[in-house]
Amino acid sequence: MTHRLLTIIWLGLVVLTIGCGVGAGTKARAPVAMAESAVVFPAELGSFSKADFELHVAQLRKRLPSKDFTIVVQPPFVVVGDEPAEVVKERADGTIKWAVDKLKQDYFAEDPKEILDIWLFKDARSYEKHTKLLFNDTPTTPYGYYSREEKALIMNIGTGGGTLVHEIVHPFIEANFPECPSWLNEGLGSLYEQCGEEDGRIHGFVNWRLPGLQKAINGKQVPAFKTLMAMDRDMFYGDRTGVNYAQSRYLCYYLQQKGLLVKFYKQFRAGYEKDPTGFHTLRAVLGESDMDQFKRKWEKYVLALAEEFRLTTQD
Length: 315
Hints:
2 domains, Glutaredoxin, two-stranded antiparallel ribbon, five-stranded mixed beta sheet, alpha/beta
């Protein structure tokens, strides 16, 4: 069994209030500052042509706020970062390409319909400054977010790669399962906040969301799965969003550990019209007739989990 850990974990973080943010600002572009270093195109460009990427990169250059930024084409994305060029290239290949390949291996047949940008800002100062300068937005999360309006993933990469992999999930969900309810969209995304490779496939590990979920379970604050899965967007992202994220993540984690997650995703997507929340599909995949009883079993399972912080790559 091979373990390849990609994420850096924020030690001591146990609160559940941080999820993936949503940018809401109006558009405002920064002054032009050209960076003319050559862009290398990979051999495989996916569903887009070299001409598509060349046009996109030419337009993107006009928006660069300084010559500190490096552009890397990593289909279906164009990666832009203000760390040293070799670091940006390593992130594009070592994290982004790896995550895209592994997610497509298990879940996604289609790329996003348009080329998307991934902005990797080197630290909190750069992230906050350039989010305002480039997008006229103030982020609601210190880690990063996906903006549909800007067609971009906007990241403070200084916090690690976990949120980056999380946010990569969202445009692929949009392209492959646009009706996907919030609980699964965020459950799958947050599962891979701390992820690596096991037996050649992407695998989520226990992460910082666990202690808060265990506290919520002990406080009888975790809703029934039928309730969680029926939440609309406003309810899911409302006052209890931290618990909702964590419950969704650890339901996905449970399914993963039982070898059922990919099966559930594919059956739910195929049968969405008859089961728009996924509740009946979940019950069938689990082989459970009494979901209240299953929730008690799942809670016992979650309470027995230990938080594990793996900070180095293991081969």
